[in-house]
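Project outcomes to date are best conveyed with an example. Our students and postdoctoral researchers have been running inverse folding experiments weekly, and each run begins with a structure described purely in tokens. The record below, which covers 435 residues, was selected by the lab manager from last quarter's runs and is presented without edits.
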């Protein structure tokens, strides 16, 4: 029997590419469009992964493709530091308008989410003249030295890669389903936010803290979604001590929760916001938007990079914003969220393995447990579930510290028929898993 192309490339991959860059599925993709991907053998998959949150507007959206081609015909690279271009400045102006905050804002660009976080911390440290940064348990901010230090989960992200960057501290996040204080919401009074006051006494002084960084909905950490009181209280504490509040919207932004940025659900105005993933429509791009006084603090030449804000990536991002707002994909995002919330709630009523459904808009997660009382994580069963779904033609990702949370990151352009088919596959797979 003739060897198929996927098997051939897997052997070639094993010979030439190290094991470190892990592969979630064995699929080799030949084509992707909208909310589907087709492998080298012609098998089509419904995509609930979205390139790990990159394809909110869909694979190869015609407007994004046209913007990329148009810019590539003009020029591909000059380096913004050498020869400036319109798309960089136009995109910065648009993001300054979109990011919440009734104050002047400025924006700079980088290549990836980790770079955005690195720059946000650099800016906060420079502006406050303080060294310390406080991050959250379960948080994920990247794989570079500083962002890996900020990231909570040890394996696979940090194991064996130390020593880590200094002056990084960690506090519990508002993970109500697994309250770190042993309390039960709503009676806890959001103790995890109030804990900061004690933390300043026993771990790092507020006067030494440049920034607190948090994801509004934790991505890799398990789609952990805090209660309504959490971020307003956290923001108030930051304001009290002159600490910059950095909100990491790399996975939750660009409409993923039904609003352009997830932090809008809490009516909080961050000092600095980081964005990436779906902002570029598939092109490598990240943004750092913040208060003008913060962003202007670093000296000339203190920030930047050769490829930062590449003209093709900026053109793609401008197309993404047009699609989200003018083509009403934000409305579609909210519609998807309503459908998913209902379907996931129905699944929770049918399957004891689903301990909690959480999230906002179409950024929803299901935490799978062996027992609802003990909340013992169903890690191996979650892994098996994603494999069953894959075999049936649905690409689905897990996340969380225990790898027991199913998450949805499907493109907003997914059709009702594709969505229903994907959810039906998920339900069939849960039946097969739990029978």
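After processing, the design step wrote out the following sequence:
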């Amino acid at each position: 029997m003739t060897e198929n192309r996927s098997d051939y490339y897997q052997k070639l991959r094993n010979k030439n590419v190290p094991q470190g860059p892990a592969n979630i599925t064995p699929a080799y993709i030949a084509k992707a469009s909208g909310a589907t991907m087709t492998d080298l053998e012609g098998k089509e998959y419904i995509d609930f992964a979205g390139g790990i949150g990159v394809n909110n507007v869909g694979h190869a959206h015609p407007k994004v493709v046209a913007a990329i081609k148009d810019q590539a015909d003009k020029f591909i690279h000059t380096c913004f530091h050498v020869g400036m271009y319109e798309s960089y400045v136009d995109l910065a102006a648009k993001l300054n308008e979109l990011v919440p905050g009734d104050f002047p804002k400025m924006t700079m660009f980088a290549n990836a989410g980790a770079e955005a976080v690195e720059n946000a911390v650099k800016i906060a440290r420079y502006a406050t003249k303080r060294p310390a940064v406080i991050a959250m348990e379960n948080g994920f901010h990247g794989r570079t030295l500083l962002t890996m230090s900020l990231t909570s989960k040890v394996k696979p992200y940090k194991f064996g890669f130390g020593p880590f960057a200094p002056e990084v501290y960690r506090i519990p996040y508002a993970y109500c389903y697994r309250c770190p204080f042993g309390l039960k919401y709503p009676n806890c009074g959001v103790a995890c936010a109030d804990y900061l006051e004690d933390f300043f006494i026993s771990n790092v002084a507020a006067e030494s803290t440049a920034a607190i960084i948090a994801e509004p909905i934790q991505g890799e950490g398990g789609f952990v979604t805090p209660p309504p009181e959490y971020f307003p209280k956290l923001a108030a504490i930051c304001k009290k001590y002159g600490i910059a509040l950095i909100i990491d919207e790399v996975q939750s932004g660009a409409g993923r929760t039904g609003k352009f940025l997830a932090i809008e659900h809490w009516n909080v105005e961050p000092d600095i916001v980081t964005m990436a993933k779906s902002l570029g429509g598939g092109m490598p791009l990240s943004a750092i938007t913040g208060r003008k006084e913060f962003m202007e603090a670093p000296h000339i030449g203190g920030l930047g990079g050769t490829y930062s804000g590449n003209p093709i990536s900026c053109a793609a991002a401008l197309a993404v914003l047009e699609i989200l707002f003018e083509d009403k994909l934000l409305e579609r995002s909210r519609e998807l969220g309503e459908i998913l919330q209902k379907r996931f709630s129905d699944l929770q009523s049918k399957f004891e393995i689903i301990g909690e459904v959480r999230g906002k808009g179409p950024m929803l997660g299901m935490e799978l447990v062996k027992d609802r009382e003990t909340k013992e994580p169903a890690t191996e069963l979650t892994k098996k579930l994603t494999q069953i779904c894959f075999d049936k033609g649905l690409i689905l990702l897990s996340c969380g510290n225990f790898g027991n949370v199913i998450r949805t990151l499907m493109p907003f352009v997914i059709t009702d028929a594709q969505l229903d088919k994907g959810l039906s596959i998920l339900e069939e797979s849960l039946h097969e898993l739990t029978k």
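DSSP finds 13 helices and 15 strands in the chain. The longest strand covers residues 354-360. The training component of this project remains on track.
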